[in-house]
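Hi team, as promised in this morning's meeting, here are the two structures we talked about. I've kept the exact order from the run log so nobody has to guess. The first one is mostly here for context; it's the second one we should focus on when we meet again. Sequence first, then the predicted structure tokens.
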Amino acid sequence: DRAPTQALVAETMMAETIGSRIITGATQGAVGAVVAAALSAFTEPVVNRILVERITVRESIKRLDVEKSRKFFATTLPTNFLKFPLFEAVNCVMAAVAVPDAVKGLVTGFLFTTLTLPITNYRFCKSMELPVNGGALFKAYLPTVLRDIIYGISRNKINTALILAYPALIGDTVGRAMLLFPTVLLSCIISSPGNELRGYYLQPKEKRKGFKEFFQPKNYVRSTSAGAIIMAISLSIGCLLTTPVKLALGAIGAAIGL
């Protein structure tokens, strides 16, 4: 009886550990979603124009409309609430599975892209003021899944390397945020070729640039740096705010008797 009891306890503890990781990851992703939504409402139209239309940063900023960006926030916030917590939760679950980092990243990237591509493309169309239809919602699946798989693999490998190099940082919230920023930043940069391919295939047919014209290094640097910095900042801030948010939600729950 002792062995089965110990096994049951071990399984229960493992389930609780995975459960707590899911909650933490989803909370971090949700907080990051709000931060990113506020940033993206103004920066995403700029970044998407640079990515797809291959114009300069200055030209894209000149076309920024504050009122349209405020309205676009109504799109970035709900879509982020779906995407960010989902990715963080899947990532946390895979972190608890005993498989190589490459496998974790592949599964995370594949699942995330397959489940959220219509949301991602809907948001893109809104940011670029393009018509939303069935074809647009499922456009550029292969380059998007390639980007997200590379991102997932890179993030797991970089995270593991940084934790091994700086183990003391994982002991507190600030340290974890310090690890998360370079992890996300580098992962976005490494996976950027997939993002560039995505941008190429998202071009409207009537305005499509040729392959050689589209893929110019200066354009690549502009779009990659902007996207990577926004993602790294938002998730790092989300990491910093996770504990206060959990405490606040716990206090609210206790106050109303949940």
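And here is the second protein, the one for discussion:
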Amino acid sequence: GEEGEGEGGEGGEAAAEPLVEMPLTLTRRGEGGEGGEQEVVTLRVHKGQDASEQVFAFCAANGLHSADEVSKLGGLVSGRLEEAGHAREEATSAAALVARGARQRREGDYSAAGAAFARALHHAGAGELSEEQLSAAKSGVVEMMRAERRTVPFLEAMARGAWEEAVAFLETVPREERSAPRLQLLEARAYQKIGRWGSAQRAAARVVEASATHSSWERGQPRMLAVALGSAAALELGDGKKAPSSERAESSREQQRAAESSR
């Protein structure tokens, strides 16, 4: 079927009639703003899908990098859902959604952060947001689209198992734009796959460092995965004694050595 038809599982309810189907005409311009080819794209929301996530994903995929577009489309979708009797009560305040988006952004979950900012923008209580919160939501939603778009080639290469390609691409992205624990964990994994153990260990150490305040020591959490990965890298480097210890200690030693060597 068309894109979006099978989202949420093969067949079943997601492939059934969407709750919202909005054809929109977009004007595609050339690099220098010339031309003006028109294209009809359809924004769909199926049962069980989060409307804000769909609006954010639609805007990101179609280059609508504008908080106003996100807000406008979010409002239209909410209106359509309400008319069809599928309106969902928003239990979270607009301010809490902005805070959630900021946290998810730090963790590197850009699509979830973008959806939280989008939801805050077309929230019934958006008018109660402070100027600072509104600005954070508006800039946040656009930044998350760009951040997600920048990391797509890396994530696609990782999914294909093209480790060298993934690393080569990621190394072109400025460090501050790939500092989220989830991305650094994938980075460590890619280095591990191509045998760059020192780089794998340093990336894993940065994950532990970055997630120290908001990630628990539970199995499956970025922190624990990073320690396991860093330990494996340390063993490969031939330093068995260092492996079981916390990678945070190693990270600070690494920084100390770097500082000494630059003197």
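Starting points for discussion:
The beta strands are 20-28, 37-45.
The chain is about 55% helix and 5% strand.
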